[in-house]
Each structure stands twice: as structure tokens, then as C-alpha cells.
Design a protein that fits this description.
The structure is a homohexamer. Chain A contains ten helices and six strands. The first copy, chain A, is an alpha/beta fold. A four-stranded parallel β-sheet of chain A has the order 2-1-3-4. In chain A, strands 5-6 form a two-stranded antiparallel sheet. Chain A is globular and about 55 Å long. At the D-E interface, helix 4, strand 4, strand 5, strand 6 and helix 9 of D face helix 4, strand 4, strand 5, strand 6 and helix 9 of E.
């Protein structure tokens, strides 16, 4: 159930009976010469809507701008500063609880948002407002990704390329896939460390065109497989979460000092 | 040019030559029994994209959640607290200037955002970061609105109904237009005042179903007229703004104390 | 009862029996060549004290500096930034509730404060701390103002001039009334819009000397009429507010999803 | 020159030639059974206006509510939280510099404000915005105070009583001076410490009626002597400050590491 | 009981039975040519650990960086801005209450921290989270200090020199004691005032080498006497505080308006 | 060079010639039944001091309390909230630049601090204040750790046990190593995920006694090897960082839109 398309009386049963909301989040940032800047929020929205269409859970509109300053050297990258992003998501989440929501899944498709969504989730958890968790689509299907790609790339690689080929094929510049690969890099996290320290702050330091991996490995068919597999995982997660009694989602109490 | 659909090299000419950005903003909040909760951001996005398609200016993705706590009693209304909203828009706007943007139009379709967008615009103006102005579609065509509707309503009335009939007809519950009218109210601002003071805080105090005016007056044809007229105004505003030298957009200097 | 002039035991009965406070707020900002910079807080204080003298309600000292950066180009204008103003008024208001106050009227005489006082009022309303409302004197007597002036002006015009002639005649530079008119402007809000957008941020953009309207229309007699009429409205508002049970001032509950 | 009473053109010479502003600050808080709650801001305003009348320096309106939660148990005490107070004074001060002010004297009559005004002054000093200093009237004439009173009291004692007798005699409840003394306490700071720690937070812990010292020692004549002596000190301070080149008021540079 | 050296099960009895914590705080800032920059936190930690070793109360690790910008001109001085310092101590203190702590002594050895610790203590007191008080070692033994030194100095003088001679003799540059004295100053607070105003912000304005008093008066024997005397005071304070029922530590209620 | 042990003139050469500072950070939090709560900051300090002793770089005192609420259920765990931690480290770091520091290594031994230190580093990087990087000791020697332990554990396992055996053997409860292992867990990150989502917030959800891995594999000899290897890496990092021209540490410029 996509909230922006419902009128308020249509939500009466949901408010009466349900307590789960899905919030898609991504970013608007460079994704190489071949992918659109909205890649991440388009993926997040597509997955969130597919999973909520199949299950009937409530899906909010996507939050399209996230924490992306590490891509700012490339034209058009948008971002908000991390404290602002956290506060925006926190405020939006707290206010959802006014309608009886007590569990939230942040359907996320941008790595730069992960730690911030977890920090927001922790705030809500620690004061027992709600149980909100971050779900990043590619972390739900690591086996499949490993199976279909040699170099999935952390950003703008064949993984995201295949997804957009499936979701919005017209937005992929097919004629630039080789350029994307040849002008980018194979990311080797270990190799980037200097004596154990991460010394880079921006994507441009690791890749001239901002992306990683071999984009020519992407196909719409693989995209569809990834999409379906991730949607299945998300559906399962929503059902699992809906099944938990709220008391099981609340923080554990302090260890009893008299029992040890 | 819709930023989320561009890849970064596609923006090179724009970054090199242009300095204007359009940011659509709305809300996700109750709009009565007949309109979808996303009404405001759907209108804002549609207008912003139409005007930028026609002119080639840059359009960011829409910000779908705004300042709407005054609608919270109705199921599904989402909102962020005002300081959070202002900071989110400010951060996003400041960061746009990294790409050479120095003038921004907030294409807004939610009255509750107006004063906050102006406050953000003032911050950017006072420190000379950028010239950002708020534009609310219905304030650009008051004559036409007056001509076509007797009771346009400040919220969820025939004005917005007609617009959604034009933009996304499938989201209007046509069979509830009479209910919308009969279960709502004709808003009379003066009559709501008590000895000059505004004593209401929430829409529910003024309208049982959250909306105002006579929705049965709306038609898709009127919607199209409104849409075209407002788009024309927006196009004209963008062109006017683009024509101004930045020095004319900067705050006036202090009055010279020696000249008076 | 003017709080700054009372000793604490004098307030025992009030604290025991009453729950209403009046807080006058204005600004210290340019008011043209003929009016003193303190015009707004002097008006607010005079009205608040008159109405509380007549009714016995508690009146705090006036807050003399508000949100006025839009007048800063003119010598001497003082201001605080909007978030600071809101926090100051909010803190002061929350702390008043420690003495049992649960309803507050902000007697305001500066347009630039309105939206900020409403935002503070909303904060207090939403967490049920207190019911605080903004009252702007000239909005309580629109008919009379229209009757006595052709061009009342939104700032520094005959309306405020007449009030200061009545309240503190010695502070009006009578010999500059024609200068005020001739060096200023007749404000036409509609005419200032560009395709529906408000493109000005500072008063100096609309008026060379910072004021609007025809100040030569002001007389002390008109000032007295305005003052008496507004005081009457304020008295009536205080009495109305005092009569409300607090339960009627609290926010409406969420619409019951099972009843629709 | 009292800013609220000037029109903006009257300030042209001052803005052109001068750079000093005086800001009176006090509080609205209990001052025992005999003194008005506005005692502190009335004293601050009276001294600031006397000294600026005699010298021609610019005096802003008084800030009447300060940091006073330690008096909150007594009816009517008003206060703002310390961070809010600091931000309000800081914002107001920074904005004064827009008119060329680069030195400010906070004429203060409330002990609870002292550390906060110094913290604000330090902020402005460290970023070289302005040189702002706190001046507390009784600290400028310790010898005279010691001479005229045995127990001046830190709050609501004969010192403040005499000042109000001189400034606004009608606000002193003369018939309660003995009550004030008998129902209060002689403050002995050392005696209040527990093994070196200050364990009290509120005035009520040290004095049943909130005040200290023997108020029956106060007379209007003593009040006048105190007022004149303090005004003289303030005049001298303003003249001293005005004489300093700004370069002498700026923070010292870092010690040159090569010279030691 | 030094918390950093305990494993968590070792604390079970304490958590079950006790509610007092000791938090040592100092600074890392210049202390003249002869004393180490860590002087203040080394003293605070030594005293806190001695007193808690003798009594069994819980001692946290020392907070080594405080509010010291007034020493910044001298090489190596570290500091955090006052709002940050307050928030850090407040957060740390609030979180201690999760383990049942409801009373805290801030064992402080840096004058620049005093007012900030009191402000934090007040915050915790006013919302009844905990009773936290600041204890500055030298304020607990004023008689002894006066007895053993002619010019104890507020900073880097013989008082602190003797303490470090006792606590960490190897860190005192004995050969620079005369330099410390001759290159510094005898601080005369009164003499530094200009017409009652404190016009200095940084230590360098009062002392060329940053310290005050005659350091050659310090000996390890005096240091030991000071240390023992202060430790005794602290032990007594901890025992006193532990003995108080929490209801006695809570803020006094509002004066009953019906009883006066 | 350990800053707290230096007097300010001892730092003159460093301030004149060098621009690197090392800041050790850890936490005070439960580390199982066998390790002290200060484990992380003791490790961080020991490594930072060893590396700076060997190279002469400046080492600040350790920051002993970090982001650890996820361990709060176990007695004695201390923490500050993440925004407070970030602001404290940021303020401290910015202020170090006053002495000419332009590069900082955060020597960190607590996983919970990592993302926050990187966020602070990014803030300083983006406004070109300084180049600050986070270094976590165990990430610098992954090969060795893998070689010596089968189950190093992310927290309180043999890795940290061995380090404390080497650094402060007296603080290890040797007799509880088997308890630590048997009462804890082998952490399997993948197994903890639910359909790709991390659903735990606190350590207690994964381990009954708060620790992971087989602590009986730890020996002082292994601790020494780890310590020496990590120190070597840190020394190499400091030397590498010191060798970089500052211009190489500054953020890359925006991609030139005219060159693509």
C-alpha cells in the first residue's frame, strides 16, 4: 500500500490493525557515465513498492537525497549533511508512530546512508519509541551477487547497472558501459589502506569516473533475478518483523546485579 | 532536465554554463476522502518537471515530506518538525552551490511549507550563498482561480482536486466528491478568529474530514487550464530569474550614514 | 498586574487561582524618519498593560528585540536570528508554566514575529504544555483601520504613527510626517510579486526610507480610537481564554480508525 | 542616546562616527517581600540610561528576562535556560556589529547572568567580531558598599533596596522591610559549603523568603549615593573603552615558538 | 574502586547496593615553564583515586580536556568549546544513572571548568535525574593554603607546584622554578579591573609566561600536606553525600501560594 | 612526546617545525568477566605512546569514554551519545590546529567509535581545517591476527585479552578465561542477520556475558607480538602522513565541466 496514493479513509483498517511501515531511502548522486543519478532511490522505491504490493504493508514515499558528499566532485551529486539527514529521518519516523506504527524498515539502496540509519534506529530503540531497522538490498542476497558477478563493485558497478536495466531500462546509457568500465576502477579495499588506515574520503580518489567493477557484465535478465531475489528477502523480513511481539523488540533490561 | 534521470557527464554543459536549480517540495498528508495523501508533492513535481522540460533548467527530485503536523489527526499524515525541515532544505540547497548553482526556485505546493522555505531563502540570501525563492503555484494565478471556482478552499478543495484530475486522474476517488464537500467545510478565515487571534492549530478543528470547499466543481479540463497557466508562470519566473545578474540578487548594502 | 512591579507575595493569590499570562513582544527596528525604533514594543507593552490593568491578569515585561533582519539596512535596527527568537520565547513560556500558567497570549506588534510566535505556540500545544496564542493588535480591528485610513501601510504608516501619537507623543517627529510619506512608498503586495513569487527580502527594496502609506493622515485622536478599540478586543480575548476549560484547549485526538 | 526613542535618521552620525553600544540586562525574579520582581532590569536600565545620557553613547532597550531558575520556587520568577540566554545575547550582539559597533558593555544587575555574559563576550572576542564585556554595578563600587552597609546581601538586601528607593520609590513596600530581614537570612557563603563543595542550587535553600541581609539599613539617600557612584564608574568605563584602538582589544596572538 | 580497572562482574555488588560515582576532571593546558600541561587532570585523578581507594566508592577515568581557551596562546594547550564540554559531561553523567547512580561528585582541578560543571549539575538537578556537585580541591582547604603560601596564585603557582611535586615529582622542572616566578606575575584580581569590569579574556594578558605566584615556595612536603588534607575533605564529602536520602537532594517544591 | 607531561616551552620546537598530532581514543565499557572496563583506552594509549615515543610525534591524553551504549546492560559501561562524542572530538581537533597542527591520527581501539571518528575526519577534511584519519589497531595487522587466533572475536576475545596481558597483566582475571569463553559466544555476523537486516542493537543479544571468541588462546607472548606489529604499523603510518605535502591531503577539486 503506497501511502502517497491512498486517501486517508483508505488507511483506516491499516491504522486500526497494523503497526509496520516501510520507508525507502536512496540518494541522488553520480553513478558513472552510464547510470542515472537517481539510481539509489529508484532501486529503493522499486523494491519497497514491490514488497509492499505483495504483502499489503504501508510504504511511504522515497527520501531521495541522502549522505553523499563523497561523490560531490562529480556534476549534479546532491547531499545533505549527516546530522541533518539523521534528524530528518528521525523526525519522520517518530511522527509515524502517532498513527500506531511501532516498527519500521528502512529500505535502503545507498551505502553512505547505512550507518546513519542505524544510528537513527538506535535512538528510537533506546527510548522505546519504535523498532526501526536498516535493510540494504544487496546485503540480503550476497550469495547470488557473488554467483552472477566477478566484480560487483561497491558503487555504480554491474550490480546496480543490472537493477536499473530491469527497473528503468530507458535510463541506462547502454553505449557507455565499456567507458564506465574502462574509465573506472576495480575497487580493492585492502589495497587502499595505508598501514591499516583508510586515507581516502572521496570516491574520486579511487575511481576517475566515480564507479567500480565491470558494467558490461550486467544484463536485464540478471537484473530481474536480483530484483526478485531481493524482493523475496524483503517480503520475508517484513513478515518476520510483523510476527514479533513488540516486547521482543524492546531493548534488553540491565543485567540484574543480584543474580550474578 | 530532471537530475535523477541524468548521468553525471550529461550535466557537464549545465554545470559549465548555468546556475539555476528548481527544487519541487510538497507533503504527504491527508487531502480528504477523495484525494491521495501525496497530492502536494505530486503537483509540485508535475509543475517543476513541465517547466524544466520546456526550458531545459535543472530539476531535482521532489522532497515529499514537509511541515504537516496540523493534519496529523487524519490517518497517514507524515511530517517532520519545522526546524528539521528547514535544516534539510538548507543543507540540500547549500550543497547545490558546490556545482555553481547560485539561484534556486522552490516549487511548492503545500501552504504549510511556505514560511519555512522563505526562512531558508533568507538565510541563504543574508550570507550571500544563493538567491533562493519560494513559489507556490496557486499564488501565481489568483485571477484564474477566482474565475473558475467559487470556493477554491485552502486545502483539498476543487483547486487541488482539478489539478490531480489532470495530473493523475486514477488517484482521485470520483465517487467521493460529494462526501468530500458535505463532510468538510467552507473555510472562512475571518470567522475563525476570536477577537483577532487565531485560536486553532489543527485542520480538524475547522473541518471534520480535513478539507474545504466544493470539490464537485472540479473537472479535468479546469485542471488542465490551471496546470498550463501555472506552468507558464513558472517558466516565466525561471527565465526572469536566469536573466538577473547575480549582483542584482544580492542583499542591499547598509544605508550610507554619511549620505543622509 | 504588571509582574515586574509586584513582589512575590503579592502574586500568591494569582498563582493560587489563575492560569493566564500576557507576554508583550515587539521589536527595536527602523520605523521611518518620524517614528522611534522602539515603536513596536512600546505599542505592545501599552496595549498589554492597559488590558491587564483593566482585568487583573498578569503581564510580563515586554521582549523588546525580535525578528527584524529585513530592516537591517537602516541605522539602529536590532534583531535576533529566528531560531534564537523562537527558543527564547519558548523557554520563557515553558518556565512560566512552573507557576501554574497554562494559557498565554503573546501581545504582538511586529509582523515579523507572527509566524515565529505561532510556531512556538504550536510546540507548546503539541506537547500539551500550554495553550499559547499570538495576537496582533491591528488584526483585531481591521474594520476600524480600513475606516480611518486609506493607506494604513504594513510598516511605519499612519496606523503605527497614530498609535505612538497616543501612547508617547513626544517620540513622534511631527515635522517629518511629510518626509516620511514622500520618501517612502505605498505598498502594493501584488505588484511586488514576479509571476507569483515574492522576490524581495528586505524592506529597503520596497521603500527608500523604510516606511509605507501616508503618515500625514495620523492624529492622536485616531490613535486613541485605535488604542481603545484594540484594548477592548484584547480584554475580550483574555476573558474568553480564561473561560475555556483546559480540556477544550488541548489538541484533538487522532481520528478513531474504527469509527470511520 | 536611548535607541528605542530614536528614529533611524537620528542615528546617522552615531553610525558614521561611533562604535560603542551599551546593553542593559537584568532579570524578572523574586526579590523578597519588599522589592519588585523587575528590580534587576530596572536598576540596569536606570544606570545604563544615566551613563549614556551623560555621554551620548548608544543604549539599547533592556533585556528583562535572564538566568534565574534558582529563584523559581517563589511566585512569578521568570527565566530562560542558560543556553537560550547566551544565544539570544550573542545573536543580538553579533547583529549590532552590522551597524559598525565593535565594542559592547553589558550593563548587568543580576548575578546569575554574569558567567553567561562573559561566555558570550568570549565567543565574540575569540572570533574577533567585537569586544564585549560584562559590567556589574556593585562590583564597580565595592568600597562604598562596604562603607554604607554591614550586610549588603548578595540578593534582595539593603544594596538593591536602596537603589530601588532611589530609582522607583513607589515600587518598594516600605512596610515590609522588617519582614524582609526577619524572614530572610544573612548569607554566609563559607558556611554553606560542605567540605568545600557548594551543595545548594536554589535560593530557597538558604533563605526562607528569598532575600539576604538587613533591608532596614536602606535609605533613598544611600540609594542615590550608590547610583551616582556606579554611574560615574560606568561613564568612566565607557570613555576608557571608547579610547582604546580596536587593535588593542583583539586577542593576543599565539606565542611565537621561535622566539622562546 | 577505579572503574577502568574492574571487570563488569566485579561491579555487581556496587550496582546492587550503591549509588555514588566520582568523576575526575581537569585540563591539558599550559602550566608555566616548570609544570606539565596535564597538571590539572593529574591532580584530579590522584585525589579522586585516593579518596575512592580509601572509601570504596566508584571512580571513573579522568576527563583530561576541558575549557581552557584562555590559555591557548601558549604551546600545546588543548580545549573544547564550553557547550561541547557541558554536553559531554552531561551525557556521560546521565548515562551513569542507567546503573543506578543518583549522585555524582565532579572532582575538579581546573578553575575554568567550575561554572560549566555547576551548570551541568543544575540541569541534572532540575529534572531530578541525579544530584551532581562540583568539588574543587583547593576550595576545600582554604585555611591550609593561606597558612603555607603567601602567593598561592590562581594558576601554576606554588599550590599546584607542590601538588605535582608530591604526585609526580619527575614531571616538575625543578630548575625552572625561579624562571616561573620571575617570568610570571603576582595576580591581583582587583587591580585588573577597569571601573569594575573584567577586561581581560586570556591568561597571557596578565602573565607573560602564563603562571602566577612564587613557585619557589613549593616543596614536596607541603604538597603532601595539601594532598592529604584535600583527600580527607573529599572522603568526608563522599561519606556525607552517601548518607543523604535522595529525597533530601531533590529540588525544593514551589512555595505553596495558599500558605503565605 | 606525551603532551600532558610536557611544559609549554618544551613544545616550542614542535610547534615551530611539526604539524602532526596523535589522539588516542577508546572506551570504558564491559569487556567480559576477565578484562577491565578500560581495555580499549588502555590499548589505544599504550600504542599511541609507544609509537610517539619511538618517533617523537606529539601524543595527547587519551579520551576514555566513547560510543558504547550497546554494552550498557553490563555493569559499569560508560558512554556518551554519538552527537556529543563527535562534537567533543571535533572541537578538540579544531582547537589543536591553533598550534599549527594540520594532520591528526585518531589511534582508536573501540569499534563503536570508528564511524564517528570518520565522520569527524570528514568534517575537518571538507572544510580543509585538517586531515584527520582514524586508525584501528587490529585493522592494521589482519594477517597476523588471523595467523595467531582461530576466533579473535570482535569484542573481549583473545585478541584484546592478549593485548592487556602484555600491557597491564595485573588487570586480567586469568582465572576467568574459561568462564569468559564458556559464558560468551562465537560471533557469526552472517548468522545474526535476518533476511539481510541487522536486527540486534546490543551486545547482550549476541553474548550472555558480553564477549566473543576463545579467550584461553591468549598469551602475553602473543600480546607482545600483536603490540609490536601494530606499533610498527602505526609508526609507519605517522611517518607516511608526515611526509605528505598538505596540498596532497586536501580534497580533490570539482571535476572540470569543460574538460569532459
Amino acid at each position: 500500500m503506497f501511502l502517497p496514493h491512498q486517501s486517508w479513509p483508505d488507511l483506516a483498517d491499516y491504522v486500526a490493525d497494523e503497526s509496520l511501515a516501510v520507508v525507502p531511502l536512496g540518494s541522488t548522486e553520480q553513478h558513472g557515465p552510464h547510470l542515472p543519478e537517481g539510481t539509489d532511490y529508484l532501486i529503493a522505491e522499486a523494491l519497497a513498492r514491490a514488497a509492499t504490493d505483495r504483502t499489503g504493508y504501508l510504504c511511504t514515499p522515497p527520501i531521495p537525497v541522502g549522505v553523499s558528499s563523497h561523490h560531490r566532485q562529480f556534476h549534479g551529486t546532491m547531499w545533505v549533511d549527516p546530522p541533518v539527514f539523521r534528524d530528518y529521518v528521525e523526525s519522520l519516523s517518530r511522527n509515524l508512530t502517532y498513527h500506531g506504527i511501532d516498527r519500521i524498515v528502512y529500505v535502503n539502496a545507498h551505502g553512505g546512508n547505512v550507518q546513519h540509519l542505524r544510528e537513527v534506529g538506535r535512538r528510537l530503540h533506546e527510548d522505546e519509541t519504535a523498532f526501526a531497522i536498516e535493510w540494504m538490498w544487496d546485503e540480503s542476497i550476497p550469495g547470488l551477487i557473488e554467483e552472477v558477478f566477478e566484480t560487483p563493485g561497491p558503487h555504480g558497478g554491474p550490480k546496480e547497472t543490472a537493477m536499473i536495466m530491469h527497473i528503468a531500462a530507458e535510463l541506462v546509457r547502454e553505449d557507455r558501459l565499456e567507458d564506465a568500465r574502462d574509465g573506472g576502477a576495480i575497487f580493492d579495499y585492502e589495497a587502499e589502506l595505508v598501514h591499516g588506515a583508510r586515507i581516502f574520503y572521496d570516491a574520486i580518489e579511487n575511481s576517475p569516473n566515480g564507479v567500480f567493477g565491470d558494467q558490461t557484465d550486467a544484463t536485464p535478465e540478471i537484473g530481474e533475478r536480483l530484483f526478485e531475489a531481493a524482493t523475496e528477502q524483503l517480503v520475508a523480513l517484513l513478515e518476520w518483523l510483523d510476527d514479533q511481539p513488540f516486547s521482543d523488540l524492546v531493548a534488553s533490561p540491565h543485567v540484574d546485579p543480584r543474580s550474578t
